[in-house]
Amino acid sequence: MNFNLRVWRQKSPKSKGKLIDYETADISPNTSLLEMLDILNEQLTERGEEPIAFDSDCREGICGTCSMTINGEAHGPNHPGTACQVYMRSFTNGQTIVIEPFRARAFPLVRDLVVDRSAFDRIVQAGGFITARIGSAPEANSILVPKHQADLAMEAAACIGCGACVAACPNASAMLFTGAKVSHLAFLPQGEPERTSRVLGMVRAMDDEGFGNCSNNYECVAVCPAAIPGSVMAKMYREYAGATLRETVAE
User: Fold this and answer.
1) Which domain holds residue 198?
2) Can you give the CATH number for the domain in which 180 is found?
3) Which contiguous run of DSSP H or E holds residue 18?
4) Cβ neighbour number for residue 30 with a 10 Å cutoff
5) How far apart are CA 80 and CA 228, in angstroms?
6) Is the pLDDT of residue 135 over 90?
7) Would strands 3-9 and 96-100 be described as parallel, antiparallel, or unpaired?
8) In this structure, are residues 20 and 11 in contact, taking their beta carbons and an 8 Å threshold?
9) 127 and 200 co-located in one domain
10) What are phi and psi of 48, to 5 degrees?
11) Does the predicted model carry a pTM greater than 0.90?
12) pLDDT for the residue numbered 36
């Protein structure tokens, strides 16, 4: 298969970027999009040109590192799924494919298709943890968790922090990500000690990082590779409202 690629190239955060056209030929339909970029980079290197910078790690749809926008869709056309799970058979022969980095103020561009998503790390550091004794692992059944609550917690914990929700949202909101991280521990008894400080810290950290507000477009849910439900945002709102009230009363 042959494709015309339009790839965003930008040497540094302060330099001016633009879309550059590349032609690829004889690409197997079973080749993944990232493998296709590997092939293109080998050709660029052989020609003495700078290869395209992009992130990847597991290439199995687990880590979320391969964050990029493909033809205007976060992670490409196959949902739920990540960019590394997009295969060239998803496109037609001769098609033009536009590949760009995630666009969000809180995700500053580093180079080409690479963006800095460490804002997510700082949100988690603000409250995504529990108090636990160090040493030997506790008995698994020492704290009973209702099956329904455990299922909801596992559903929220599936978030891989890829940032597709932010890239798809017209407001660059991180509500789905933050809601998943808050809900994961809010559904479990182990998360009870920091319940108030957790949601207050994480929501305020999210705002400090410059993410936008949610306007209920649900584009985030549509592109999420882990199929995180929008209900985690509603859970976060309830947790935040209760925590704010408790904080006000305490003052």
Assistant:
1) 117-250
2) 1.10.1060.10
3) strand 18-24
4) 9
5) 10
6) no
7) parallel
8) no
9) yes
10) 80, 20
11) yes
12) 97
59 phi and psi angles, rounded to 5 deg:
55, 30
Same domain? 128 vs 171? yes
Mean pLDDT in residue range 57-74: 95
Q: Give yes or no: residues 32 and 124 share one domain.
A: no
Residue type, 15: S
26: CATH: 3.10.20.30
Chain mean pLDDT for the chain: 95
First to last CA, the chain: 66
Looking at the structure of the chain, the number of domains it has is 2
| CA count, 13 A, side-chain hemisphere, 216 | 3
Q: Strand pairing of 109-111 and 69-70?
A: unpaired
Query: Which H or E run contains 183?
Result: helix 175-186
Q: In angstroms, rounded to a whole number, what is the distance separating the alpha carbons of residues 49 and 132?
A: 52
10 and 103 co-located in one domain: yes
- Cα 1 to its chain centre, rounded Å, is 30
Q: In what order do the strands lie in the sheet with 73-74?
A: 18-24, 3-9, 96-100, 69-70, 73-74
Q: What pLDDT does residue 77 have?
A: 94
Q: Which residues does residue 103 pair with via DSSP β-bridges, in sequence order?
A: none
